[in-house]
Amino acid sequence: MPRREMLVLVGLVLCLTPADALTAFPPKFQVGKVNGNVVIKCNTSEQRVTWTQNGEPEPMAELVAEGQTLTILGLDLPAAGNYSCWAGTVLLDTTYVVVSGTREEGMNVSCQAESYRGSFHCSWTGPYSAVFRARLTRSDGSLGEWVPAASHHGRFSASFVDPSFCPFAEELHPLQLQLEGLSDTSYLNFSIHFFVRDIVRPDPPQELTVQRRGEQLHLAWAPPASWPLPRSYFALRYWLQYELPNGTQVDKYVEGAEETRLRARARRVRISCQDPYAKPAWSPWTAWQGVDVTQQRQLRAR
Ligand SMILES: *[C@@H]1O[C@H](CO)[C@@H](O)[C@H](O)[C@H]1NC(C)=O
Ligand SMILES: *[C@@H]1O[C@H](CO)[C@@H](O)[C@H](O)[C@H]1NC(C)=O
Ligand SMILES: *[C@@H]1O[C@H](CO)[C@@H](O)[C@H](O)[C@H]1NC(C)=O
Ligand SMILES: *[C@@H]1O[C@H](CO)[C@@H](O)[C@H](O)[C@H]1NC(C)=O
Ligand SMILES: *[C@@H]1O[C@H](CO)[C@@H](O)[C@H](O)[C@H]1NC(C)=O
Questions:
Q1: Residue nearest to atom 5 of ligand 2 (CA)
Q2: Residue 164 confidence (pLDDT) above 90
Q3: Which of 73, 181, 255, 290 is the most interior residue, by most CB within 10 Å?
Q4: Pair 31, 100: CB distance under 8 Å
Q5: Is the shortest distance between the CB of 92 and ligand 2 below 6 Å?
Q6: Pairwise pLDDT comparison (212 vs 271), residue with the higher score
């Protein structure tokens, strides 16, 4: 392909990106139905204001301006966007107008808590150009603040804390999370319900140590630092995996203890854990921990 045509193509692709793509949730927005009318108010005491849509004085919409209000007649996608009111060159107020969305499927929300401390993390998919925010209805029924979502290639995520969450009480009501998204032209609104006990996935256990004692390996570890106490109440089930000198992997499960012995000559070991009373989500693995090979050779030589 000649270089000039390539340049033109690159230019086209760059220009197709909307000039006013949202980078943050706008402070003021209004949702309208397709073909419905939307009334916007300019928050000012100025008697005469002029309006722009996406910075243009010639909006792509049928409008009626009267005093501080603007009515958009028969809302459609080209009529959506950033409406600003001005006194001469002074910007007075801005409202972002969007069409209510029909797309609610495919958001694929997934939430995860590392413990029963009332903090968790959720992620979901959405249009690449969208901005999202989310808000938690806490376990005591109070409403949390809006949390802006981070975005990465159409995957959105945010972290939440429920300060009223009690790790010792049985959860009687699910938490509710409301998600609100604005893409260039449309509004998305949906909510999910869940119990923390259903989304718990512990952090990996910590401080795994391997000691040779005679013919045996003695392994010891500690629960993840984020796991609540007391241990008698917040029990964990452990999954040990070790690798034999010939490469075979062997599994061993331990419950109610934080140490164990292996009779085998293991090359390396790793460990994971889960809450035996919640849905079975295993923690990520710890890194493989090598067993001192010289020690093993000496042992075999004896
Ligand atoms: C209107 O503007 C005033 C002053 O800036 C502000 O205090 C008030 O919250 C605004 N009202 C709305 C509805 O945005
Ligand atoms: C809307 O337009 C105003 C005026 O041009 C600008 O200051 C503001 O940043 C725009 N907002 C968005 C969300 O594009
Ligand atoms: C939903 O998200 C999870 C985790 O991010 C992913 O593993 C799964 O494939 C997704 N499912 C769909 C239908 O997109
Ligand atoms: C979004 O949905 C919630 C209920 O899930 C509702 O209370 C709220 O009014 C909706 N917001 C808009 C702007 O439609
Ligand atoms: C590896 O060693 C173990 C124990 O010595 C033995 O049971 C297993 O069959 C061996 N596996 C292979 C693939 O040789």
A1: 55
A2: no
A3: 181
A4: yes
A5: no
A6: 271
Tokens of 64: 């009626």
Average pLDDT over residues 247-275: 92
Cβ of 110 below 6 Å from ligand 3: yes
Bigger pLDDT: 172 vs 70 = 70
**108 close to ligand 4 (CB < 6 Angstrom):** no
Write down the pLDDT at residue 171.
81
CB 296, CB 265: distance < 8 Å: yes
pLDDT of 12 strictly over 60: no
Which-ligand-closest: CA of 263? 5
Could you tell me if the CB of 37 is within 6 A of ligand 5? no
Tell me which of 104 and 99 has the higher pLDDT: 99
Chain mean pLDDT for the chain: 85
137 contacts 225 by C-beta, under 8 angstroms:
no
